[in-house]
Write a structure and sequence with these properties.
It contains 25 helices and three strands. The protein has about 500 residues and is an all-alpha fold. A three-stranded antiparallel β-sheet has the order 1-3-2.
Length: about 500
């Protein structure tokens, strides 16, 4: 078989060269190359004063931190900081757990240093590397104390540099600091740091850091059930209008939790809907998406509404909302026994989701629904049977609940105390003298409104003739005045008084 002669790249057709370049560009970058590209974007953002390049880098942080390990971080720092004597490089490598072993290997097979080393990267790149190392340390529980030290040192480093081009990265660092305290079980200890930094950010008009710190404080308060303090923080601060959508989504979610605990279910529903609209896609942030919908389902039930069944078939929510779906079925059927069994079965999940106290409030809704179903099924039912069917403790409780339902207008009927039963009002039909009277009143009102509108649009008869006569008289006076001017008459003696402005 003859050998096939391979053509050089210069002799290849242009189409094949372009296809080869497209295939190379479609190949995903390695973690080290991605970090180097991000550092180049950060330096471009600092040199051109365009923060959008830094925001582009931070958007990849969630996916990049899953690929980090000791070797990736060490190689990236070694390629970015070419000067071996750089203090920033030594400081960064000291926080990597396997840096000592990597340094020993690199000293054995070290390549010759270039004669002209590249300039030192900007301080924003150093803070970005610290942020990556911090997320890498938070991946293992044994490194939590070391991550705490790195977080505090990074905060001090940022405050000493005091560069406005570092604001987007600073907001992410504050989130990492909160995450460090939360995983260490010391979230309350970070509250003074957040309050002081929030005051500084508001004075400097640093909207991104201010929005992040307000969310950090709200999360800290709600984590310890300090709803009054969280409400005071919301009333005393103004959330920045220019904040990013993820920060706004978190803020509305925290507001929804506060309003729900304060029995303001309408405002809570509005805030939760805003959080759902502003949240990232379900596959991008499934945890937040599930948390918002869990609280939204409970708030809808407290408002007397039943959530749509298709919500519980969503691929991201189907498994997470299993317990809540059973609660919805119990509320819809008005079965107090099913509600109590579901509540005890999924109590651990509800406690973890911090929705247990809100779900307990649904007991009254379940009882009201059950009483409404009984009033539609029976024309007369004893209080004892109501107590048995709704699984109430005593007949006195049943009498109190039924009386309150009648007073609130949930059902129509009356309680006969002498005989111990409830007489339910007959179900009204869609026709009758009462319905016709209401319909006649509405028609009369509409006709009267129409007649008044027609009268308001009428004009006086022959009103335009008066305007025409006045305009004709003005023209005659102008003609007489023009005639006197042409004849040379004296305006002061014979003509009309035109005033000084003429």
């Amino acid at each position: 078989m003859d050998d096939v002669e391979m053509k050089p790249v210069d002799e290849m057709p242009n189409g094949e060269v372009e296809e080869k370049k497209e295939e190379e560009s479609k190949q995903p970058l390695s973690p080290v190359e991605e970090i180097k590209s991000n550092v180049a974007l950060i330096e471009r953002a600092v040199s051109t004063l365009e923060p959008r390049f830094t925001h582009r880098v931070l958007r990849t942080l969630g996916a990049l931190r899953k690929k980090l390990d000791d070797k990736v971080l060490h190689d990236a720092i070694d390629e970015i900081y070419t000067n071996a004597d750089s203090p920033s490089k030594k400081a960064l490598l000291s926080w990597i757990p396997g840096a000592a072993e990597q340094e020993g290997l690199m000293e054995v097979d070290s390549a010759p240093q270039p004669k002209h080393a590249q300039p030192e990267p900007v301080p924003e790149s150093e803070i970005y590397f610290r942020l990556l190392i911090l997320h890498h340390l938070l991946a293992s529980p044994s490194a939590y104390p070391r991550a705490m030290e790195l977080a505090h040192e990074t905060i001090q480093r940022m405050q000493s540099l005091n560069r406005r081009s570092m604001d987007p990265i600073a907001a992410k660092v504050w989130y990492a600091l909160e995450r460090t305290y939360e995983l260490g079980g010391e979230l309350a200890d970070a509250r003074p740091l957040f309050l002081a930094a929030q005051r500084t950010a508001s004075l400097r008009h640093d909207d991104e850091t201010q929005a992040s710190l307000i969310n950090r404080l709200l999360r800290s308060y709600l984590n310890y059930n300090l709803y009054d303090q969280a409400d005071k923080l919301v009333s005393k601060t103004t959330f920045p209008v220019s904040a990013a959508n993820p920060q706004y989504a978190r803020y509305h979610y925290y507001l929804g939790r506060i309003k729900a605990v304060q029995l303001n279910y309408t405002a809570a529903h509005t805030n939760l809907q805003q959080a759902i609209r502003r949240a990232p896609p379900a596959k991008t942030a499934p945890g937040f998406y599930q948390a918002v919908h869990k609280l939204s389902v409970v708030v809808d039930l407290l408002m007397g509404e039943i959530p749509d069944r298709s919500l519980f078939r969503h691929p991201v929510l189907e498994k997470a909302l299993n317990g809540y779906f059973e609660i919805v079925k119990a509320v819809r059927m008005g079965s107090l026994s099913q509600f109590q069994s579901t509540l005890s079965k999924h109590a651990a999940q509800f406690e973890k989701d911090r929705t247990y106290t809100l779900i307990v409030r649904l007991r009254q809704n379940v009882i009201k629904t059950g009483i409404r179903r009984l009033s539609l099924s029976y024309s007369r039912i004893s209080l004892r049977d109501i107590c048995v069917k709704l699984h109430l403790d005593s007949e006195e409780d049943a009498e109190y609940i039924v009386g309150k339902a009648i007073r609130d207008g949930v059902i129509e009927g009356r309680i006969v105390h002498e005989k111990g039963w409830m007489e339910c009002g007959g179900q009204k039909s869609g026709y009758g003298p009462e319905v016709s009277d209401v319909f006649a009143r509405r028609i009369t009102y509409c006709l009267e409104l129409h007649n008044q509108s027609v009268k308001a649009m009428r004009y006086p008869l022959n009103a335009h003739r008066k305007e025409l006569a006045a305009a004709e008289g003005a023209r005659e006076r102008e003609k007489e005045l023009a005639k006197e001017i042409q004849e040379g008459g004296d305006l002061d003696e014979d003509g009309p008084d035109l005033g000084e402005g003429f």
